[in-house]
Design goal:
Largest sheet: 11 strands, mixed
Number of strands: 19
Shape: globular
Number of helices: 19
Structural class: alpha+beta
């Protein structure tokens, strides 16, 4: 997702006061998270806060396994790819939507063409390669591509292309469906209390319903990290995600809790608004990079649990460039570059998510580090309900963001961050036509060795431009009460709540 942040207009105290009776409900798993969701329309969001819930409300044709390293059957029990790489034939299993209607190839075709064509779609570029998608019979979907596409099968596992009910969308309308959809996954949306919680109930029509032991799940928004941790410690929540690095050691000592530290594809980075002077000058952006001591951030903020990042592609992920440039901490060289650029008295506005402990700590450190290079940083602590729109509207100079991969292939993040203008290259407004063309070409290159060389070049060119500043890679850290089993998250962020047990 996705550093995908969402809107939330919520005071943590008001939430924690109302948790107790809900958490005690038999078979209902309560999970504390920072933000409320934004929509249940899969094509209209790029945020983890939405995708991580989608994954248990919807199902996809092709899934990513628990290890986050390979694809496996979902609603499509099998598929074939033609020798020329242009035709994909998916064979759907017998499955039903939550309203009892069959999930058909026509629903799958509708879903694919909608993400390609709809004005609401944030992901149209990733699916523009689709020429036709047709149901040749109720259980057979034939997708023909305009050109061979290396990442195509991986994109079939993305939450954004979760299978929708064609009849449901047409009958309810897109807006109503986005509030309370017809489910194809393990849980249905019972109620969505905006700014508070999403209440899910077990979907008895789910094709793997026998696998699901929970009666329901409640995702409860508690923006303040400490309030969220206290709620788990007090037994008011069954689980909480986004455990602050500073609390890990303490929580691990509590016999009533389980702390899960799991591999992830998360990368934290500093967004730079290229439209604002003087950051439209690459020398100034490079100076900012040189002024930042990434290792100090890792040591201080993550308590050594993260590693310094050298690329937008996370370490261990496909085509990560181990030898990509990592600029040293050199405030004197930063000052020299600013002088070369002819700028002085640089003052930048840094948008910070209030209540996010890590964000606030990073902001203070960066303010100090950039100050040593002669750059004044004005911290603007904002309610998280406001920050996303500020970034989209370009009302910022600097802001920390994070991203976790949603598919195994690097094409998705690369396209979103470097390869097109639909979302302003993830709010940076970065423009480089050479990079943009390489991104498009890499999507079509079927030779893995040639493709790796292209991604190596993309990483090198974007780093040379300082499109943003890579900070660190970190694990997913979640906590549950001791009576919760199988609360697992794979490296792409998916929670396998269909397997979670509340004893």
């Amino acid at each position: 997702m996705t550093g995908k942040w969402a809107r939330v207009g919520l005071i943590a105290l008001s939430v924690t006061l109302g948790l107790g009776s809900i958490a005690e409900a038999a078979g209902v798993l309560t999970i504390g998270r920072r933000e409320d969701g934004t929509t249940f329309d899969p094509i209209a969001t790029a945020q983890n806060v939405d995708f991580w819930v989608f994954s248990n409300v919807y199902d996809v044709l092709v899934r990513v396994d628990k290890t986050g390293t390979k694809l496996e059957p979902g609603l499509a029990e099998s598929w074939e790819i033609s020798e020329d790489g242009l035709t994909y034939t998916f064979h759907l299993r017998d499955a039903k939507f939550s309203d009892g209607s069959p999930i058909t190839a026509e629903d799958a075709a509708f879903t694919l063409l909608r993400i390609r064509d709809s004005e609401l779609s944030l992901w149209s570029d990733s699916y523009a390669v689709i020429d036709t998608a047709e149901a040749t019979d109720p259980k057979t979907l034939v997708v023909k591509l305009k050109t061979p596409s290396a990442p195509f099968l991986s994109t079939m596992a993305m939450p954004a292309v979760s299978i929708l009910s064609k009849a449901g969308v047409e009958a309810m309308g897109e807006e109503a469906y986005a509030e309370k959809p017809v489910a194809s996954g393990a849980f249905t949306v019972e109620e969505w209390r905006r700014g508070d919680r999403v209440i899910l109930k077990k979907n008895p029509e789910f094709w793997q319903a026998d696998r699901v032991s929970l009666d329901g799940v409640e995702w409860i928004s508690i923006p303040d990290d400490n309030s969220r941790m206290l709620s788990v410690q007090a037994g008011e929540l069954d689980a909480a995600i986004f455990v602050p690095f500073s609390r890990v050691a303490e929580l691990k000592k509590d016999a009533n809790l389980k702390v899960m530290v799991e591999p992830s594809t998360r990368e934290d980075h500093l967004l730079l608004n290229h439209e604002h002077e003087p950051m439209n000058d690459p020398k100034v952006r490079e100076a900012i990079d040189l002024a930042i001591d990434k290792q100090a951030i890792v040591d201080t903020v993550t308590f050594g649990q993260a590693q310094v990042a050298n690329s937008y592609i996370p370490a261990g992920a496909l085509y990560h460039n181990d030898n990509n440039l990592l600029r040293p901490h050199d405030p004197e060289k930063a000052k020299a570059l600013l002088a070369e650029a002819g700028v002085s008295d640089v003052s930048l506005d840094y948008v910070v998510n209030a209540g996010n402990e890590v964000d606030e700590q990073i902001a203070v450190l960066l303010q100090q580090q950039l100050g040593q290079a002669g750059i004044t940083v004005n911290l603007q602590k904002m309610d998280p309900s406001m920050t996303w729109d500020m970034l989209v509207n370009g009302e910022y100079d600097l802001s920390v963001m994070y991203w976790t991969n949603d598919i195994l292939d690097p094409d998705q993040k690369t396209t979103f961050v470097l390869g097109h203008d639909v979302n302003m290259n993830y709010m940076t407004r970065y423009e480089n036509e050479t990079v943009k063309q390489l991104v498009a070409d890499a999507r079509l290159e079927m030779d893995p060795a040639k493709r790796q060389a292209m991604y190596t070049e993309i990483q090198e060119l974007s780093k040379a431009d300082t499109h943003w500043i890579d900070l660190y890679y970190s694990p997913f850290i979640n906590v549950t009460r001791a009576n919760i089993e199988n609360f697992n998250q794979n490296p792409l962020g998916r929670f396998f709540l269909e397997d979670t047990v509340k004893n």
